[in-house]
Amino acid sequence: MGKYSYIKEEAYEGNLLLPKLNLVLFTWGNVSVADHKEGVFAIKPSGVPYDKLTIESMVIVDFEGEVIEGNLRPSSDTPTHAVLYQHWNDVNSIVHTHSTYATAWAQSQLDIPIFGTTHADHTTSDIPCAPPMSDEMIKGDYEYQTGFQILNILKEKKLNHKEMEMVLVGNHAPFTWGESAIKAVYNSAVLENVAKMAYLTRQINPKAPKLKDALINKHYERKHGANAYYGQK
Amino acid sequence: MGKYSYIKEEAYEGNLLLPKLNLVLFTWGNVSVADHKEGVFAIKPSGVPYDKLTIESMVIVDFEGEVIEGNLRPSSDTPTHAVLYQHWNDVNSIVHTHSTYATAWAQSQLDIPIFGTTHADHTTSDIPCAPPMSDEMIKGDYEYQTGFQILNILKEKKLNHKEMEMVLVGNHAPFTWGESAIKAVYNSAVLENVAKMAYLTRQINPKAPKLKDALINKHYERKHGANAYYGQK
Amino acid sequence: MGKYSYIKEEAYEGNLLLPKLNLVLFTWGNVSVADHKEGVFAIKPSGVPYDKLTIESMVIVDFEGEVIEGNLRPSSDTPTHAVLYQHWNDVNSIVHTHSTYATAWAQSQLDIPIFGTTHADHTTSDIPCAPPMSDEMIKGDYEYQTGFQILNILKEKKLNHKEMEMVLVGNHAPFTWGESAIKAVYNSAVLENVAKMAYLTRQINPKAPKLKDALINKHYERKHGANAYYGQK
Amino acid sequence: MGKYSYIKEEAYEGNLLLPKLNLVLFTWGNVSVADHKEGVFAIKPSGVPYDKLTIESMVIVDFEGEVIEGNLRPSSDTPTHAVLYQHWNDVNSIVHTHSTYATAWAQSQLDIPIFGTTHADHTTSDIPCAPPMSDEMIKGDYEYQTGFQILNILKEKKLNHKEMEMVLVGNHAPFTWGESAIKAVYNSAVLENVAKMAYLTRQINPKAPKLKDALINKHYERKHGANAYYGQK
């Protein structure tokens, strides 16, 4: 077992959760896990079906996106993960999927409005949708620029990546992250569920009001505040 | 086996039904079972996945919401359950979920209209959606006040909790109850199904009329009236 | 084994198909199988979950709806089945469900338009939705009158029950039938699928035209005409 | 084992994938696999359920649609497959299904707009919907003419069958193809997924813009271009 076996195993386990939670069709998603001390992350090899993955097939890449260890090509989204790890030393795992409802919102180029406590239990704002990038950026290093698209939309919306752990990339699909692979994949499933509920809410009542501030704060605080009382200590 | 083993077992079995009936994602729902003679109820511990639950992990709480027995924190919704048991001595089980279609109606802040016999087989009125609570109530004892929100909407709509065993809490999600855990969970599944059918009905025909009174009464009576002939004697 | 064992077994197998094909929640559907020579049919007992059914639990009823054999109450919809068997001596099985999309159309009180060949492979007309019955009929023998509602809508639309083996009862839910339990349940699944596709078609294109006559006839003839070439000889 | 055993086995495996990927109800779909050197293809027998199929039950047909080997009738869609193989000597497998969302778009008689990268990863244009065929063609050799409908819509839209491996036949349902059965069935699943996402996108935002050209080209090139970097070498 090599020196990166721990992150390879966590990335492997995280990737296997994607089909289990119905977040991917075929190979359309990837999970990475970083070791910030070593300046590397483990990521799914490109185009390999989940049921053919092994711990050893995970690819080790540095924060410039260069392969350090592994015989397979890393996910084509690797530069996006690399940019985010470069900027966020407190994020240990990143997930990308094309889950159906979240992707439909991304294709709609609309933020997901905060309509209820299911949303507020996880974050206090609308989930932002980054606008499509400029033609120059697309023709350049596309996946690398996708990382900056995510950083920029958070900056523009004055959101901190520890408070908002999910983003839609306009015309494309969602990215989520967290302190571990389990948490980052959990966020992808939350996002898909919140996206479906928001879609249905607007179909039922096109004038549905957003959640009021007092409720937003209450639900977030009870799960994430200093006096959080959700879950076990 | 302690003195509360019977309600702990029923609460445990009821909680396991939630994922089986596709009513919950992760830990987003809880079932409690009361013993009115002892003035206590057993409830799911907070934030514990359903596949990690054991009968012994159920928490025993009194009708003030104080823990009587158990090493884990009870569900954060415990005060809501406690208020309802205080007021309803003929209700033995309460269920809370964030099931998708029922939650979308709650987020829409609309009652679910009675469109068909599937609905009328269970209750004779629209399923009420309580308006969001005032900011003062939210900042106070929020989950405790949620119990009063439920009591108040039933009072306002002149509905008896034995005739209407399900309510939407506006911006939040559904609560259902019944004479046993199986019946209360059954009501959550009925609500989700009726919510989906009502959503589709309005999409197909925005002017769909409600069920007429003669049909409402007929369907309810054949299942719940003095001369009920649905099911076995 | 009694003299009705053959129809009891077929009714039992037919009922088990309902949950397998996702056409029912809990006990919300029933299948019957008739023996026209004996003037009786076997039907699901009322309110019994599918996984508790046995061949012996099927109830034998005559075409007046009177129980001939069996210890349990027959389905509350028994008089509807009885009326139809009285009038249709070439129908051997009848199915009633509350399947989601078909029921939403019934609640919408709209016929399901013939939009494509999936529909035309099974019948050449819109699937009719019977209007809600009069208050007098509801207060009388409701389930018996539901049988006449079905007979009347077919008559009004000039449809033969051998050409149109499915009907929506307005505000209520679908009934289907066929020469065997397998065929009648097949028709329930076809109806649910066609109902979902028609719903989606109108959401995508509210002005979607109906299938033209030449295509309707072609698809129906290739499966059901004198020179049918679908399936094995 | 006969001389066609290789294509019979591949067709058999391909047909079994259809229910596995939830693309068919009952027998509503078929996969064929061609051997262009021999001028024949293996196709599913008509109306036989997937769980009753065997390798030996696959029917061998020539490119005129005449049965060469096999005891069962081939799929009623056989002439459509034959016409396409006649014209496309670089296509080895064709798939026809009535998958729900793709069929709803076909019934809507609308092309599926290219809204996102999930679509662009597979093809650079809207997925075309062929208009219903003329009455004369329907009354003639219908399934044979369906093949020409597909050839004509591609010609009209100036699309090459190697770049656009999926088409909707108006009022009917989708056809897809590819270099192998696995690839052709993969395309059917991609189409169903893209059709669902496009439906949701337009429901969420009726004015959702199509994907811009720079993104279309980038996503397609990274998977299919000369310097493709998606997947393994």
Automatic annotation (TrEMBL), chains A, B, C, D:
Name the family the entry cites: Belongs to the aldolase class II family. AraD/FucA subfamily.
One GO term under biological process is: pentose catabolic process
Identify the EC number(s).
Answer: 5.1.3.4
Q: Does the keyword Metal-binding apply?
A: yes
Note the InterPro entries from the entry. Answer: Aldolase_class_II_sugar_metab (IPR050197), Aldolase_II/adducin_N (IPR001303), Aldolase_II/adducin_N_sf (IPR036409)
Q: Which cofactor does it need?
A: Zn(2+)
Looking at the record, the residues that make up the Class II aldolase/adducin N-terminal domain are: 9-199
Q: What is this protein called?
A: L-ribulose-5-phosphate 4-epimerase
The terms describing its cellular component in GO are: cytosol
Query: Which UniProt key words apply to this protein?
Result: Carbohydrate metabolism, Isomerase, Metal-binding, Zinc
Instruction: Give any GO molecular function from the UniProt entry.
Output: metal ion binding
Q: Which residues form the signal peptide?
A: none
Spell out the reaction equation it catalyses. Answer: L-ribulose 5-phosphate = D-xylulose 5-phosphate
> Which SUPFAM superfamilies does this UniProt record tie to the protein?
AraD/HMP-PK domain-like
